Amino acid sequence: MDNKIKPIKKRRLSEEVLKKLQSMIIDGTYKTGDQLPSERELSELFQVSRASIREALRVLGTLGFLDSRVGVGGGTFVKKISIDALINPFSEILGNEKELIIEMLEFRRILETEIARLAALRRTEEDIARMERSIDLMREDIENGGIGIEGDTAFHDALAAACKNSVFEKMLLMAKGLLVKTRQTTLKLKGRPEKGLEDHIKIFNAVKKGNSKLSLKLMMEHIEKAQADATVKNF
Amino acid sequence: MDNKIKPIKKRRLSEEVLKKLQSMIIDGTYKTGDQLPSERELSELFQVSRASIREALRVLGTLGFLDSRVGVGGGTFVKKISIDALINPFSEILGNEKELIIEMLEFRRILETEIARLAALRRTEEDIARMERSIDLMREDIENGGIGIEGDTAFHDALAAACKNSVFEKMLLMAKGLLVKTRQTTLKLKGRPEKGLEDHIKIFNAVKKGNSKLSLKLMMEHIEKAQADATVKNF
DNA sequence: GACCTTTCAAAGGTCTTACCTTTATATTAT
DNA sequence: ATAATATAAAGGTAAGACCTTTGAAAGGTC
Q1: Is residue A186 part of a domain?
Q2: pTM of the predicted protein model
Q3: Does the CB of A42 sit below 7 A from strand C?
Q4: Contact criterion met (CB < 8 Å) for B100 and A167
């Protein structure tokens, strides 16, 4: 046969445009803050319909690379790239893929322990105050018969803020979103809330003292305990 | 003043559609493999133009949640959700945001050390063979005057595969993409290639023996060495 | 009856055109 | 000088017409 295998991928026009614009942003043709040509001009330049242009712009926009404003002085602009742009804005959509949940838990463990370690090294007075508030919040809720989930979350968020690394912070945010169901399940188990609170207090003291090794160790144990039950049974 | 603050966010119609479809996928209205109504039907259902529908579908498609085929038996289908869908498909776009690079390096350090630890616990014969090949590759390139970047990358990839956690694997992939320039810079420094190779061999032996603690420790040192120069000077 | 060819229609892909909405600025009137 | 008004550019939306792809049904041939 003369025919070779056909890897002929027909791309949509909007994808071509997408790729092109992407590479133009990467190579610096359009830099942060720059204005792109208007949709009508792009349509003219790429020789495709405005609809195709818009489909590409919409994707780039949703992904956090572009920003559009109507009116005079409006147009499409290249946004400052942030970590948010790395994480899929629809992460929550993950749902119940079991293997992934196990893997995500593993990921979260290492993420949180490192956050605790860094937090011990970098926390400010403000961070410490925020952690204290979260602990109080959790205590109060538990005393009133709640499971303290709000304070629990607040504590981990406060730690993440204290570690002064936006990548870790965002990663944790993503992981949390994905594992929200898992966490709720875990916390509902009898006795967990009180023990969780104890753990938080210990971690807090270690972080406050700036003892990074201890912070890491305690967080590791905290997560491992919390996950021990969850991993196999609850899904 | 009677006027309250205006949180009036006018959303684009395509965004409304996007949100709605997203929530329908999350809540299980449309499950993996299901076919969505045709664009024309959706247009009718949502009472918006087909263009708006398409803009929403294009975003969901690019994000990896949907898949479209033309022709008879074609249509728009819900894809199986994978980890890939969590990472922005355009991560490479990051570029030279300095603060982010520092933070990403910190992230990569913890990622790679944990990968090394897990790899020591889970590596198969196949993984070991793959690591060996990468080491040979690096050695040969260095002997021929190269910087061994290909083998270097291959080694880290092999480790990632050996850790048997797709989340770590994908995260590393993302981090690598973002830091590609950084890595090249680092490797070009005099003397680095040989030292890097030595490190790899040591790590390899630890992983092969299944010594997870040592693997972690060696990788930690390896990364720290490699990053020590890079962090401040080279950007 | 088995097999090939043709026809067909649904669904995505694309283009065109027209109109709406927003909004800073220039113009005009008071 | 101030306030009301017109303007035009740019994004947002709609409607409709084609094009292309592609599996399956219909029909014909051996």
Answers
A1: yes
A2: 0.70
A3: no
A4: yes
